[in-house]
Q: What sequence folds into this?
């Protein structure tokens, strides 16, 4: 049993094009968890700038992610919604963790390899150290549970390794909790609509590869219609999707959006063709995403309100992180008053 009281932390980067994968893999779960936990939901702007961002776009994207949190149903009065850079504990603890994490651990991070690509020498130092900042985000609040999509599980394991090493290095058992990932059964890994072997991503050059939370009904319909499939009708059970990644992805999206399972979806649609299934999928997407998109638009038109939510959230977040940082410094022998 952990000595730490349960607390949820998660973050989303403000890098434009929030999409269905972000929603089904993470944000939707944020909304559910608020019934059971104290939660902090963070727009991680310091993570975004590990790759150069156009300042006006960064600002707009920060407000857009915060608006998405609120539009999805997170209550900013009950839970804490804020942007990372307004709470200096994140950057401070990240530096400490730069000194705890080992180069060998970071060298194994597949996301760095993907994002840096062939030109690794030209990647920013921040992009490399990014997972240490992510560990700091979580542990500055001693968060115990972290809702994420599958692509972030390796980073979360690193956060656990960092927590464990800090606790050992300073002979402070249980100083930091070992945070647990919370993954969705359906939705933890939504793939590109154009290629079932690639995850749906903000940075895909083709907008047709993803459904953005800001897309209107016509655009959603067009993207679903153009989504890649295969010529076979849908199988009667999930085993029949094994070698059909695009079909599997669309059935998974339908199951996740409808709070159902692939079994149940296929018991309804097994034997039917994609034209039928795609029109049902379009309808479900529009029904679930439409109202949220409209609310996001309404909120982004009122940046004063959203900025206010972020500032008040940051005040509350600071109040939790400050005593943790004081204990970190004291434990390490760093004079800090
Ligand atoms: P980011 O901004 O890339 O994505 C935000 C969340 O969306 C999930 N996600 C997906 N889930 C399912 N299918 C997909 N195709 C898909 N694409 C993205 C991500 O797993 C994530 O949960 N490093 C993080 C942000 C972060 C963070 C943190 C998360 C920074 N500090 C602390 C948790 C705790 C990231 O880049 O997420």
A:
């Amino acid at each position: 049993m952990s000595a730490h009281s349960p607390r949820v932390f998660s973050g989303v980067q403000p890098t434009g094009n929030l999409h269905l994968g972000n929603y089904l893999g993470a944000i939707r779960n944020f909304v559910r968890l608020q019934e059971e936990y104290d939660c902090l939901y963070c727009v991680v702007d310091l993570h975004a700038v590990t790759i150069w961002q156009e300042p006006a776009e960064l600002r707009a994207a920060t407000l857009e992610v915060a608006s998405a949190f609120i539009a999805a149903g997170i209550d900013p009065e009950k839970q804490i919604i804020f942007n990372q850079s307004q709470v200096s504990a994140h950057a401070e603890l990240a530096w400490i963790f730069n000194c705890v994490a080992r180069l060998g651990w970071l060298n194994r991070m597949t996301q760095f390899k993907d994002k840096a690509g062939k030109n690794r020498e030209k990647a920013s130092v921040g992009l490399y150290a990014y997972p240490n900042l992510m560990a700091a985000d979580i542990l500055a609040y001693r968060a115990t549970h972290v809702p994420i999509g599958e692509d972030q599980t390796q980073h979360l394991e690193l956060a656990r390794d960092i927590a464990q090493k800090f606790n050992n290095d300073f002979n402070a058992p249980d100083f930091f909790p070992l945070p647990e990932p919370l993954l969705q059964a359906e939705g933890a890994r939504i793939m590109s609509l154009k290629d079932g072997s690639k995850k749906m991503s903000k940075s895909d050059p083709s907008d047709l590869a993803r459904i953005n939370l800001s897309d209107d009904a016509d655009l959603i319909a067009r993207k679903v219609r153009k989504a890649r499939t295969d010529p076979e009708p849908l199988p009667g059970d999930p085993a029949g999707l094994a070698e059909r990644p695009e079909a599997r992805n669309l059935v998974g999206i339908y199951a996740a959006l409808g709070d159902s399972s692939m079994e149940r979806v296929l018991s309804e649609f097994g034997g039917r063709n994609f034209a039928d299934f795609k029109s049902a999928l379009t309808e479900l997407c529009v029904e679930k995403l439409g109202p949220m998109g409209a609310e996001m638009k309404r909120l982004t038109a009122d940046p004063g309100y959203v900025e206010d939510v972020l500032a008040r959230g940051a005040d509350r977040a600071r109040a939790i992180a400050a005593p943790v940082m004081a204990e970190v410094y004291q434990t390490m022998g760093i004079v800090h008053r």
In short: The chain has a mean pLDDT of 96. The longest strand covers residues 8-12. Strands lie at 8-12, 39-43, 80-83, 145-147, 180-182.
